[in-house]
Design brief:
mainly alpha, two-stranded parallel sheet, 2 domains
Amino acid sequence: MLRAKRDKAAAKQFFQKALNASHNVTARVITVDKNAAYPPAIQQLKDEKVIPDACEVRQVKYLNNIVEQDHRFIKRFVRSGLGFKSLHAAWRTLKGFEATNMIRKGQIEGIEKGDIKSQVQFIEALFPIAA
């Protein structure tokens, strides 16, 4: 029972974060896997008027939805980085992977997807290295 509440709370927090991202628009359909925590979390967000009532929840058993597919890129890097010395180091490394992936996907304002020059300039501005 406690685990189900924790899973629902985590799912709700995930959806709130995803829906509040600057690059997202109001959801018309949300496609997720068959995790039992998703429908109650989405219903709670509908009750709180965070998600419109007309928003449809579509559950698909396998990882053929955009929410789950987005993690594939990160998983490739995580496998090679196993063996972190501390939780803090793992957390920072994963945040770096996620940030790099967001830049690559064009989720940074003013940097288009596929515009490699702008992406490189943005990263160079973040981390200036003397030549």
